[in-house]
């Protein structure tokens, strides 16, 4: 990604803390951050799809999904933009 911002590598199960790194294009940490972002997006797609298919979620429950979906979409768009550079 061209913007220098922290990217998540996931949550340490022992401490519950999220690990962040600043990646370099083509580096190992960038690959790990990309893989984590794609895995997160895939899980959110499945979760939101199931919630929408069930059709019983309240507006508050649906609203709770907006921030994580936005973050996942932002990461994926950032990866695509970085690939074009």
| Major sheet details | 2 strands, antiparallel
Mean pLDDT: 89
How far apart lie the N and C ends? 9 Å
Summarize the amount of helix as a percent range.
55-70%
> What is the H/E string?
EEHHH
Globular, elongated, flat, extended or rod-shaped: what is the shape? globular
- Tell me how many strands there are: 2
Radius of gyration: 15 Å
Low-confidence stretches at least 5 residues in length (pLDDT < 50)?
none
**Strand composition percent:** 5-15%
Q: Strand order of the main beta sheet, please?
A: 1-2
Count of DSSP-assigned helices: 3
What does this structure look like?
The protein is built from 3 helices and 2 strands, in the order ββααα. 61% of the residues lie in helices and 11% in strands. The mean pLDDT is 89. β1 and β2 (18-21) form a beta hairpin. α1 (28-54) crosses α3 (66-84). It has a two-stranded antiparallel sheet with strand order 1-2.
Short structural description:
The chain is built from three helices and two strands. It has helices at residues 28-54, 59-64, 66-84, and strands at 7-11, 18-21.
Question: What is the fold's blueprint, element by element?
Answer:
Blueprint: E1 7-11, E2 18-21, H1 28-54, H2 59-64, H3 66-84
Antiparallel strand pairs: 1-2
Helix pairs in contact: 1-3
């Amino acid at each position: 990604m061209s913007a220098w911002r922290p990217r998540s590598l996931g949550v340490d199960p022992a401490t519950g803390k999220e690990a962040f790194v600043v990646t370099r294009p083509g580096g190992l940490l960038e690959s790990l951050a990309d893989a984590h972002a794609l895995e997160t997006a895939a899980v959110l797609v499945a979760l939101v799809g199931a919630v929408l298919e069930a059709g019983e979620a309240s507006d508050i429950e649906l609203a709770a999904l907006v921030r994580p979906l936005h973050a996942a979409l932002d990461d994926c768009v950032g990866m695509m933009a970085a690939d074009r550079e």
